[in-house]
Automatic annotation (TrEMBL):
Its main location: membrane. One of its GO terms (molecular function) is metal ion binding. This is Cytochrome c oxidase assembly protein subunit 15. The chain crosses the membrane at residues 80-97, 109-129, 135-154, 174-192, 246-264, 276-298, 304-322. The keyword Transmembrane applies.
Length: 332
């Protein structure tokens, strides 16, 4: 099946969504999430006030958040890119509606993506107005990855990127289990990042010199800590942050084992496309584990931390690809 305009746009939107997710991680990890204290503009403008008289005026209007030009530009570039993604999704939905009579054309999912990207915009606004509340920021990450995964699914279903197969065995169940566990681990990683717990355990394989230091699960996983306070830099004490970090480490062991086992089985499959995907999964998993260890050993260098976020997105796309390969093309 040749690539249609819909398929090409879905693929473009998926690449754009990946860029938005990675840039969002960069903004968060470089502490630029409040680089613009208002929304959707920046200090009341659609660009960044970077001239002396504009900075003085912005500082007078927002005395509690003086202008930091570099951080403000990071935040605004992320908003510009996200706006472009929203426009691409609206066009995608319009194309789907126009071609709704074409056999095999996805109809519901493109429209659902419009609602999803609008909700993402609301979460982006709340990220700023609620001062980096972890529940909101983590949700923003998860729904951003959901948008990415659904766009990739649309691209796979409408363009001949990889084949669909009907292999023997319980591949779909294994793949679905790995996908669900990965989503849970990504949520744990987001919670670790948004609560500034990535360096709560600065050593390996122990944590603060202990195999199991003092923990506080009730505080660590309290989703709502109230309004009217800034969460920049985190508000939890050491025990709660250690708990979050340890949980993420334990989750990595479980998820790594399941995805590693799946990759091993795929490498031994009779069908060559499954073997290729098994190699991709194994490579991504090894890279992701290495990046996670490097984050601790090197004390969270920004390039490594951003790459770790990108690695999670890549693993997600690989497991979505597996689900596509194991489902008949008439299932949309």
């Amino acid at each position: 099946m040749p690539r249609t305009a819909f398929a090409r746009l879905a693929l473009f939107a998926a690449v754009l969504a990946l860029s938005v997710v990675v840039l969002g991680a960069y903004v968060r990890l470089s502490h630029a999430g409040l680089g613009c204290p208002d929304w959707p503009g920046c200090y009341g403008r659609l660009d960044v006030p970077d001239e002396p008289h504009l900075i003085a005026s912005a500082n007078a209007a927002f005395p509690d958040r003086p202008v930091e030009v570099a951080k403000a530009w990071k935040e605004m570039l992320h908003r510009y890119l996200a706006s472009g993604l929203g426009l691409a999704i609206v066009v995608l939905a319009a194309l789907a509606w126009r071609q709704r009579q074409v056999p095999g054309q996805a109809r519901v999912l493109p429209l659902a993506l419009v609602a999803l990207v609008v909700f993402q915009g609301v979460l982006g606004m709340w990220t700023v107005t609620l001062l980096l509340k972890p529940l909101v920021v983590t949700s923003h990450l998860l729904f951003g990855l959901t948008t990415l995964a659904l766009l990739w699914w649309l691209a796979l279903r409408h363009a001949p990127l990889v084949p669909t197969l009907s292999p023997a065995g319980s591949w779909r169940g294994w793949g679905l289990l790995a996908l669900l566990l990965l989503v849970g681990q990504i949520a744990l990683g987001g919670w670790t990042s948004t609560n500034y717990a990535a360096l709560a355990c600065p050593d390996l394989p122990t944590c603060q010199g202990q195999w199991w230091p003092t923990t506080d699960f009730s505080t660590a996983y309290t989703l709502w800590h109230g309004l009217g306070r800034s969460y920049e830099g985190g508000v939890l004490d050491n025990a709660a942050r250690v708990t979050i970090h340890l949980t993420h480490r334990l989750g990595a062991i479980v998820v790594g084992g399941v995805i590693g086992g799946l990759a091993w089985r795929l490498l031994r499959a009779a069908e060559r496309p499954l073997r290729v995907l098994g190699g991709v999964l194994a490579t991504l998993l090894a890279t992701q584990i290495s990046l996670g260890l490097a984050n601790v050993a090197l004390h969270l260098p920004l390039p490594v931390a951003v790459a770790h976020n990108a690695g999670a997105a890549a693993l997600l796309l690989a497991l979505v690809t597996l689900q596509h390969m194991l489902r008949p093309k008439d299932v949309t």
